[in-house]
Amino acid sequence: MSSQNGNKWGILQIINMGTLISTLDVGIVNVSLPIMAEQFDVSLARIGWVSTIYLLTMVVLLPFLGKLSDRMERRKVYSAGFLVFGVGSLAIAISQGFVALLLARCLQGVGATMIMANSQAMVRQVFPDHERGRALGINAVVISIGTLSGPALGGLLLEFIDWTWLFWINVPIALTASALGIRWFPRGKSESARTPFDFAGAFLLGAGACLLMLAAESARQPSGYSAATWVEGGAGILLLVALWLQGRRIDYGIIDRELFSRRTVWQGNLSSLLINLAQTATLIPITFYLHTQLGYSAWATGALLILQPLAMGIVAPFAGWFRDKYSGTFPIAAGALCCGVSMLFVVLLPTVGALAFSLQLALFGIGMGLFHATNNAEVMSAAPASKSSLAGSLLALVRYLGQIAGIGMATLMVGTMGATGDTADSFGVPLRILFGLCGLVCLAVAWSGRKAAKPSAVSQSAKG
Q1: What pLDDT digit, counting tens, does each position of 129-147 carry?
Q2: Burial of 111 (0-12, 13-18, 19+ CB in 10 A)
Q3: What is the mean pLDDT of residues 330-349?
Q4: pLDDT band of 343, cuts 50, 70, 90
Q5: Where are the alpha helices (DSSP H) in 127-262?
Q6: pLDDT > 50? residue 416
Q7: How far apart are CA 452 and CA 329, in angstroms?
Q8: Can you tell me the distance from the alpha carbon of 315 to that of 368, in angstroms, rounded to the nearest whole number?
Q9: Which residue has the higher pLDDT, 138 or 360?
Q10: Are the CB atoms for 264 and 379 separated by under 8 Å?
Q11: H or E, element range at 269
């Protein structure tokens, strides 16, 4: 392992490369949807499935592939993920029909899932505990940059190139990362026990997530909350409850009983779900409010939104260093507290405008930088080594479920923003209520986080 340890920061850059392209692709495609709809002669409602099927594929397959990776040699699954992602990108670029486009996008999602299921597990495998927070802090920055910069980067590229190049550029990156991964990633046999796969749980998770996505999409239509919207949303929630109940009956479920018997793991995942919910529920209305209600251009809106990942990028490595040297208690609680307090700028300032949003985005970014790097490191360190890919895949899963829930919450509160005849003032009160609720969610995480995280096992790691 000495050569692998000596090359661990190089390995981290490959991991970050996979994280970047898989998260960047979620947002970068959205800006090209109108162009794709025109080329394939489909409605905007139908072309939206290009984004939805990618997210849905990851939500359904993350626990399954996480468990599979714990059984197999992790470097092979991870490197193969790059290859599948590259092939999926190539298939999208040369697609000649809408069905072929969706199938190719689904294949790309499979590759992205193989990458995301293993990225944090690879960090755990390569880095000792006293360096894990710093490494995951850098990875958290990449996740934030990829997620938040996708629309802006996509819009910029489409000014100069055809939409297919958004996928062509993935091919050489993916092939290079796959080759480097096979060469550099550490070898090692799995320590995971051979337990059955929870196919029933995978179905319940997929069907529940799909119904919740359909409910969120239909709620954004001009008709608003129809009977079908409530049926889809209610059925989706019931299926997820059934998933939880089923996981309590068996030892090999997607909701792994051994993992979730550890307080750090279940509380860290729940906290991550809530923080991601608050981020998405507030970020979408900010983007929409600036552009449609206050008349900001796409460039001005993007420049303002960059405050959040910029603040996160500055703070996250420091948070990881602090966790490695001292403990994760302070960064987790302080980060969630910053996220909660940031909502007050929108709730309490006299005018809901660019100043309130700028202050909120900056302070929320600081909070995200403190929280995510530390929380992820604590969860991954608390998980058994034989289930580190499953633990990492669950962290990615709750991030996407939090985003889905955040979309639903934003739609519920301000879903008709931008309708004809609406003014900025007419959405001031609902927007303040939405931010107030998200602030309470973050403060609840801060309250639980102040005693949830245990001091990092740096001394034990040093002895080992």
Answers
A1: 788 878 877 877 787 777 6
A2: buried
A3: 93
A4: very high
A5: 129-157, 165-168, 170-184, 199-219, 227-249, 257-260
A6: yes
A7: 7
A8: 9
A9: 360
A10: yes
A11: helix 263-288
